[in-house]
Structures are given as C-alpha cells and as structure tokens.
Amino acid sequence: MTTETVTGQLIIDHLEEGNLEPGGEVALRVDQCLLQDATGTLVMLELEVLGLDRIEVDLASQHVDHNLIQGDNRNADDHLFLLSACQRYGLHYCRPGTGVSHAVHMQEFGVPGRCLAGSDSHSCAAGGLGMLAFGCGGVEVALALAGEPLRIVMPEVWGIELRGELPDWVSAKDVVLEMLRRFGVDGGLGRVLEYRGEGLAGLDVWDRHVIANMGAELGATTTVFPSDGRTRDFLERHGRAGDWRRIEAGDGARYDREIVLDLDRLEPLIALPSSPGNVVPVREVAGEPVYQAYLGSSANPGHRDFAIAAHMVKGRVADPGVSFDINPSTRRVLEDLSRDGSLQALVQAGARLHQAGCNGCIGMGQAPATGRNSLRTVPRNFPGRSGTPEDSVFLCSPETAVASALFGEITDPRTLGIPCPPREQLEAPAREGAGRRDLVSLVVAPLADDAARRVALVKGPNITTFPELEPLPEDLVIEVLLELGDDVSTDEILPAGMRVLPFRSNPQRIAEFCFKALEPDYMGAARRLLDQDDLDGHAVIAGNNYGQGSSREHAALAPRLLGLRVVVARSFARIHWQNLVNFGVLPLRFADEGAADLVHEGSRLRFPGLRSGLEAGGGLRAIVEDAGGEVGLVHDLSPRQVRYVLAGGVLAETRTRRGQAVDAGGDRASR
User: Fold this and answer.
1) Residue 375 — φ and ψ, nearest 5°?
2) What is the DSSP letter of 134?
3) Which of 70, 351, 374, 497 is the most exposed place for a label (fewest CB within 10 A)?
4) What angle do CA 3, 6, 7 make, to 5 degrees?
5) Which three-class secondary structure state does DSSP give residue 478?
C-alpha cells in the first residue's frame, strides 16, 4: 500500500506512533467517538474508574438504540444513567427513538477525514462517509475519550475496484454479499477494504454505508470509501455542506491486493442460515416458504431501502402468513417516509411498524416463529441471535425481502414483473430551509464545564461499579473447560436479546449467561473450578476466527469474572482478541498444530514462570499434566499489551501509568 490510497492518507493524518508496515502496531489520534447503550453503560463505568473529568476528543455521541424495550425498570434506569454520564463527561446524548447509532451519527456528526472509534463493531459503517472508523471494545473507547490514542495492528489494504452499474433489482446489499461469497467471514482479517473505481458514481453515501457496515462480517479492520461528489451531496442534504472535504486516491495509489467487482454482472444474493458467509444466488433457493420479512437495521438504513419497499408493495398486501416488519433506522428517515407517502403504502400493505432502533437485529423483539424462515436486511444471522433458539435467518436485500413477503416464499425480485424505478425517484423529499437539522431537539448537547462538574451520576439498583481484576500470577494452573470449533461468535459466548441485554450495566449478573448456547452449565462448572485450591481458573480452546461478530466486551469480561485466564485458538477475530487482552485474559496459539492433539476438554495446564516468560518475550510453554507432555504456545501481543495482561487488564495499567504521570509532571496525565 502507498500513502496515496485513501486509507494511507487518513492514517498518516492521524498517526502518532508506528509506521505503515503491515503487522506492526500503530497509534492513531481519535477525533470522534460513538457509543451505543448496550456497550456505553460499561464505557461510562470505565470512565469513572479512570477518574476522567471531561472527554478529550472533538466530539462524542451516546446513542440509545439497543435497549429500547422497557419491560421493567432496568433499561429505563440505564437511559437516565447514560444521560447523566453524558452531561457529566461532555458527550452528546441521542434520546431513545432517535435511531440506530451508525445512521444517526453519519447524518448528524460524521465528518470526512476524521478518525472515529466506536464501541460497536459496525462503527466501520462511517467509512461510507470517507472516515477512518473502527469498531472497538468499550474500554478502548473509554481510553480514547480520555485522550489516549487508538492502537491497532497495521493492516494490509485491499483495493476493491467497482466497474459498471448495478442492474435493476440489485442493490448495495448484494455487493457486500458478493464479497462475503468470495472471501467468507474471515476473509478481511488484518485488512482494510478500500472501494474505488467508476462504479462508485452509482452508489450514494447510504449505499456505501451498507457495504462498509458489513465489512465487519468479513472480519475487516475497517472499510474505506473516498469523499467525493456523492459525499458532498449527502452532507448538503443534511445541512452540513461545510463539513465536506474531497479525499480521493492519488494517481500513485497502490494496494497490497487489487480486486475487481463487475457490478453489471451481480444478481440478487442471499446468505443462508446461519452465517453471513453462506451466500448463494436467490434463484437457487426460490420457493422456500417464508414466515418473516424484516426491513431496517444498521445494514440497510437509508431512505431508499424503505422507499423501494413502498414502491414494490403499493396496491398489494403481504402474504397473510408473513410477518412484515419495518424498523425505521432514524427518526429523520421515519419523517421522510411519512412525508413522501412511503409509510402509508407500507402500512396499507400490512407492515408492522416498530420504533427507530436496532430492535430485532439484536434479538430485542420481532423474534421469528420456531422452525420458520425469516428474511432480514440485518448484518448478522448467527444461531439464536434473533431471539429464537432454533432460528432460520437469511440475510438479503430489501428488494428480495419484500418480493418474498408478497408471495410468502423466497422470491427473486427480478421475477415480479414490474418496472424497477430509477434511483433518483427513491430519494428522500427535499426539506424546507436548507441547513435545518430536524434532529437537534432529540439530541441533548453537552453542558458547559462548570455545570457538568455539578452533575452526579444517576445509578439505578441494577448499575454496579466496575469490578477489580487481579494481576496475572507468576505460575498459572488452569483446566480446559471448553473445546470449541471454528467461527465461534460473541453471540454464542455471551448472547444479546431481551433476557440478557438489560444486565449490560451489571457485569456480575450478565456473567450468568456466558456460553449458555454451547454449554448450559458453564457458569456452574467455572465456579467449581474456582473453588479448587490447586487451580487458578480455566481455559477455552477453539479453532479459527474465535470471537467473530459483535464488539461486546462483556463477552471477554464476563467469562473473566468466572475464572477464564487463557484462550488458545488457531486465530482470533480482531476486536475480541483485543477485548481479551483488555481484561487480562491471555490469547494464545499453539506453536505447531501437532501440539493441539495433546490438549482437550478436561486437560490441566500448568504454566511455570508465566509472568516472567511474558516479560522476557518469546514463546511460552505449558505442561499438560494429564498427558505427561509439554506444548509450546505463542502470542501476538505487543509489549504494551503484555503490560495489560500482567496488570490484570488495561484499566489497572492505565490508571497506574496516568497516576505516575501526574506525580512526575503535574497535569500531563490528562493526555
């Protein structure tokens, strides 16, 4: 990769430490932060541990889009807590019902050329606006809010050249599904995907958002688009023309790998249950019965995604056996759909209208019936994520979902026999008064410093303090509690949904749900091992791409509270790997594949001199007591990350380091 790529320009603009050689660690200055409520509650508790006074980034926004269902006091209490924390620390607070964090942030706050760290894995969606945007664990966002740089492993940069134009009834969702069909759910690991080429002219910013959003499903570090005329048009439409700047690849741009996508040759695609990478043409599964067609979420949030649906159903009614669910992505989109008549057409066709937010995408309502097929425009279909344990969720475009809703079976939209409207016909209606920002009344702006310092955090009975984590001992003896396969998702490690999400501000209680889908007695077994005087906890061993999916750091913290000290996997998803380190869990790989044959569920591993070995660098060894052998293990941690693990986690190390900086140099710890 050369510095004339868009990615290279953005990284150079924010680089504080390191260089652009893939594989090394770089530190990036963060301009903006995005938080959502399912992870933001923990971020605010972490800021409390750090003793932060006021945030030290240009802008941060806290969105309430996951925990919207107020079945009891817990979610409502969290909303008040988040509002008070935003006022105390200096964040914008986007009230419940404002919309999905990624879409709202892009409409209201995103700026081309800025670097964003978000406590949601789909924060990479901001790459559609020409931003350098990373999904992170919450503690990394807390550190960024405190003025610390974001540290990542420098990725390769792939150039994805788009040629031609999308055919009728094929849209941006089919572009990213084609990428998943080609490269799978781990094809983007250690890579930035930068889109370029003549085909960009036919993709507006919402289309680019769709593609950038689901770069997370490819395992990519992030996705980047240029900031061009389409970007300027988007910002002008949202009253923010002054935020635009042109950022495009130079003539000398070179990539670590170059890929060509001929848009003209794409057809409607669909991901079969239960992986975003299980992609086939819609025509191959046409005729399969459908129970649910679900439109919305962060993966298809634009006005066009709903307007095309309204065009398709006008004068028609969804099949009576289909639950036709509409989840507007933002309040602004909902208003526009009401103003141009789309909302009326959808409601008259039998659509069930839900509030603007994440909703069924994260298992918060709209769960499908047992054993029935659900077609969704959401980004993920991991087993059970919908809220139904034995779910059958397909991922597809709005066009495919709506065509299927009309006929009650999976239907290729090209077979409808109606003309596909031109894209300009599906744009949001013009608003009176260019530059008017309708959502301002729903966004609570930060208080002035003096007023903010008088704000007390409002903590309901379910909101706890952040737990203390002990440092890594010199010698470690653990038992392998679980042996897992490839592509274990964070939904399987710690599920979302209506039963679990309300405990996001209570790490001790949420730990009760760890690994429930894979081992129902995990918590009991983990506690029994902790009760044994000759053990220091337990380990998990797994295959490739361990921890794919959500950025939820609870999936690392909660097992840690139950005694998880080591995970040995063939490879890790980027965000979960960092989350494990952040909470003092050691992510390792076997030095050779043959060594894996010695270690199984129930094996007892002894790590003599583990702490000293990590401090010295190099490989590690573990004695497999039941097998009478020894295995070599390696890690991919930087010296900084080693310090985190030794200290028991990043918060303990950072608090000590920042405290030492205050002692040595007055207010230097404020950076």
Assistant:
1) -100, 125
2) E
3) 70
4) 75
5) strand
Instruction: Please compute Rg for the chain using Cα positions.
Output: 24
Residues 6+ apart with CB under 8 A from 500: 494, 510, 513
Tokens of 558: 């909660």
- Beta-carbon-side half-sphere exposure of residue 334 (alpha carbons within 13 Å): 20
Helices and strands (DSSP H and E) totals, the chain? 21, 27
pLDDT, tens digit, for every residue of 297-311?
A: 989 999 999 999 999
For tokens 């000590």, the residue is: 656
Res 431: pLDDT: 66
**Alpha helix segments (H runs only) across 506-618:** 507-510, 522-530, 554-561, 574-582, 610-616
pLDDT, residue 364, reads 83
Paired tokens of 269: 């695609």
Nearest to 649 by CA among 660, 636, 640: 640
Say how far apart CA 396 and CA 379 lie, in whole Å: 9
Q: What pLDDT, on a 0 to 100 scale, did the predictor assign at position 547? A: 96
Beta strand segments in 417-563, E: 443-444, 476-483, 538-542
What is the tens place of the pLDDT at every residue in 173-214?
999 999 999 999 999 999 999 999 999 999 999 999 999 999
pTM above 0.85, yes or no: yes
pLDDT at 660: 58
Max avg pLDDT among 340-354, 490-504, 622-636: 340-354
Nearest partner of 404 among 323, 511, 504, 345, judged by Cα: 323
Confidence of residue 439 (pLDDT cuts 50, 70, 90): low
Contact 512, 491 (CB under 8 A): no
Q: For strand 115-118 and strand 132-135, is the pairing parallel, antiparallel, or unpaired?
A: parallel
Q: Which residues, 6 or more positions from 539, have their beta carbon under 8 angstroms from its beta carbon? A: 478, 479, 480, 481, 564, 565, 566, 567, 568, 605
Is 333 exposed, middle or buried, given 0-12, 13-18 or 19+ CB atoms closer than 10 A? buried
User: Taking 50 as the threshold, does the pLDDT of residue 394 lie above it?
Assistant: yes
Of 114-118, 377-381, 421-425, which gets the smallest average pLDDT? 421-425
Paired with 160 in beta bridges are: 195, 259
Average pLDDT over residues 153-177: 97
SS (H, E, C) 217-234: HHCCCEEECCECHHHHHH
Look at residue 19 and give its three-state secondary structure. coil
Please tell me the distance from the alpha carbon of residue 349 to that of residue 320, in angstroms, as a whole number. 10
Phi, psi dihedral angles at 496 (to 5 degrees): -100, -145
- Average pLDDT of span 478-499: 93
* Residue 435: strand, helix, or coil: coil
Integer Cα distance of 62 and 549 in angstroms: 21
Tokens describing residue 537: 């906890």
Question: Which residues, other chains included, contact 633 with Cβ-Cβ below 8 Å and sequence gap of 6+?
Answer: 568, 588, 589, 590, 591, 595, 619, 620, 621, 622
What the block records as the tokens of 643 is 């310090």
Cβ–Cβ < 8 Å for 138, 118:
no
Residue with token string 């050249």? 161
